[in-house]
Amino acid sequence: MGKGLSLWFAVSSILLLTAASISISTNIWLALLLGVLCILNIGWGFILKARLRRKAEAKTDQSS
């Protein structure tokens, strides 16, 4: 995974968690929704990283 994409997932997760922590005092349902979205965002980052790594490995195996 490139540096830009890694930075995107890191910053977006921090923003989602920050929004969730701020919304805890006002609306618990919004805080839970933002927390779930953050977990899904992190999971999506790991899935994308694994797919890109497998694709790169397959490319190197074909050229060998």
Structure commentary:
Keywords: Membrane, Transmembrane, Transmembrane helix. The protein is mainly α and 64 residues long. The protein has one domain. Helix 1 packs antiparallel against helix 2.
Summarize the structure.
Helix content is 89%, strand content 0%. By secondary structure, it is mainly alpha-helical.
Features:
64 residues; mainly alpha; 2 helices; elongated; transmembrane; membrane
Protein topology:
Layout: H1 3-23, H2 28-63
Helix pairs in contact: 1-2
| Average predicted confidence as pLDDT | 93
Backbone shape: elongated
**H/E element order:** HH
- Please give the largest β-sheet: none
Low-confidence stretches: none
How far the N terminus sits from the C terminus, by CA atoms, comes to 22 Å
Q: Over all CA atoms, what is the radius of gyration? A: 16 Å
Total individual domains: 1
- Give the class from helix and strand content and strand pairing: mainly alpha
Number of strands: 0
| Count of DSSP H/I helices | 2
Helix content: over 70%
Strand content: under 5%
